[in-house]
């Protein structure tokens, strides 16, 4: 009897822990007609654009900005997930990918995608959903030329 009671309590604790883990994960936003559905609520949400945020080099600056956005009620933020270069820039300059004309090299380092990771982590911490553009179509900023 004691073993059965112990096993039942262990199962309940495990189930509660799993439920908390799932509830604390970020949810995926969806489009519902002309509105967004965030956390099961479909409506118009205010948002803003901060294409430059992944190019900040200080995590505390990113957290400060995300905190201000969250406190002002912003739930959606559009950022750039690209910053392509043709030649490797000097140290400390943020870039995500270099393209020599024949091959691409992804920069996963501290001055590369780790900066984008910092923005994503901070957004999740502050309850902000991100719209990340991964491709640039403006050729004046390293993007693909229109045909």
UniProtKB/TrEMBL annotation:
Gene3D superfamilies named among the record's database cross-references: Glycosidases
SUPFAM superfamilies assigned: (Trans)glycosidases (SSF51445)
One Gene Ontology MF term: mannan endo-1,4-beta-mannosidase activity
GO cellular component: extracellular region
Protein name in the entry: Endo-beta-mannanase
Species classification: Eukaryota, Fungi, Dikarya, Ascomycota, Pezizomycotina
């Amino acid at each position: 009897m004691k073993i059965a009671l112990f096993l039942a309590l262990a199962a309940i604790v495990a189930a509660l822990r799993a439920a908390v883990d799932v509830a604390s994960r970020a949810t995926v936003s969806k489009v519902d007609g002309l509105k967004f559905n965030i956390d099961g609520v479909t409506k118009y949400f205010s948002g803003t654009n901060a294409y430059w945020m992944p190019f900040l080099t200080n995590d505390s600056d990113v957290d400060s900005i995300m905190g201000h956005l969250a406190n002002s009620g912003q739930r959606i933020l559009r950022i750039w997930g690209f910053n392509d270069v043709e030649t490797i820039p000097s140290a400390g300059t943020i870039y995500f990918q270099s393209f020599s004309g024949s091959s691409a090299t992804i920069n996963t380092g501290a001055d590369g995608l780790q900066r984008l990771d910092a923005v994503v982590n901070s957004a999740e911490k502050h309850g902000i959903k991100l719209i990340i553009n991964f491709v640039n179509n403006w050729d004046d900023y390293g993007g693909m030329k229109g045909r």
